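Hi D.,

Good news: the full-assembly prediction came through. Inputs first.
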Amino acid sequence: MARKISDSTVRRLSRYLRRLRALDRREQKVVSSRGLAEATGTTAAQVRKDLSHFGSFGKRGQGYDVHDLRVQLEEILGLTRRWSVAVLGVGKIGSALLGYGFFTERGFDVAAAFDADPAKVGLDLGGVRVQPLSELEQTFSDRGVSIAIIATPVEAAQEMATRAVRAGARAVLNFAPVKLNVPSGVAMREMDVTLELEGLCYMVTAAGHVADRLADDIE
Amino acid sequence: MARKISDSTVRRLSRYLRRLRALDRREQKVVSSRGLAEATGTTAAQVRKDLSHFGSFGKRGQGYDVHDLRVQLEEILGLTRRWSVAVLGVGKIGSALLGYGFFTERGFDVAAAFDADPAKVGLDLGGVRVQPLSELEQTFSDRGVSIAIIATPVEAAQEMATRAVRAGARAVLNFAPVKLNVPSGVAMREMDVTLELEGLCYMVTAAGHVADRLADDIE
DNA sequence: ATGTTCTTGTGATCTCTTTCACAAGCGAGA
DNA sequence: TCTCGCTTGTGAAAGAGATCACAAGAACAT
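Then the structure:
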């Protein structure tokens, strides 16, 4: 096991877990690969293949024990330990995430928040005090921050990521619309609304073109 | 042309476009596939292959005309027309997007915002008045809304998506952490912070395991 | 015991994406 | 006009991921 697992597989595992948690809450005992597949928008074979990379969790003829598989997946994804996150930049996105209690609800510890703007330093957002950037390195190492959330403007994003990594972050979640460079060995994911919106525009436009062609063919 | 283009290709096209706009602004005339690749985190061959699906835009030996390619990509992605978006649910995320002027800055028209909470109806968020859900269908058709942004709690997401599509939306951007079903022909993208965060946890954890194994091998 | 029914786990296969490698083409300079 | 240096566009090869299809097992009824 522990060969290279693709991002798409990992994303699906998260979805399975989400579903399992819901089922567990309403005390359903068993679920089949098909049941899981339908709830998460994939196929039964895909579910089984994904799980098979990590071991064998089901009973033939029966399916998977909901609670059991849930625990296994939490283990696999690394969610049995606590994770400390820091939010860099408390503009609209940063403060939305903090104010919402987003991280806390999902079992992440918000260890700190930072902003370059002196007017924002000292504010309390969702129970976290905004600190000046000068305290970044010290705070990261004091509180064992391993995940950095980049929510700064584009211009500052790369520098913040670099500082975060140098200060000990092992993973970066980037909300700024730039491609960030991080040393290999540091995990990196991005959330880019513009990319997704433009993707939708393309899809709608291209679907239109296809419709045009079909119409042409009919003539 | 206009065969099925993969999502990953479309995402890269958006990245190229973003870069081209920056270059155009600072009046750089020409860029090579390598230049574009380095700025967007891919390879020169990939850039050329991506573009080749839509035609032939460069000059051999020279590279691509920045302004020209920019316009071509805007055309391909469907960004030369105006798009009307509606925001469904003005909780933390919805109002962050509106308040930020996010859509307007990027050339999208915010046609409307809706919320189920009567206390929120009537509020002005970034110049948009929040409307009650009862006005959804009428407003969608009056203003030609083609993109629906789902920013409601999980429970309401599927119903809102269904209503939006029935009211004329051709694309859905979903911020709620559920898999939504939409009829084929409707474009759909999702932004799920939890999925990305858990993905990071996995990557850090798995990287740790790999390190462990290496250490074991050395012993 | 035996048969029936169901669902898993997994090799084999298929499909899609990325990478490679190179001929074709452009511009500049002699 | 010819040559040289550079970069595109693209078939062919390699790599990755998703799908298929079925043997292996588990429960339960007879």
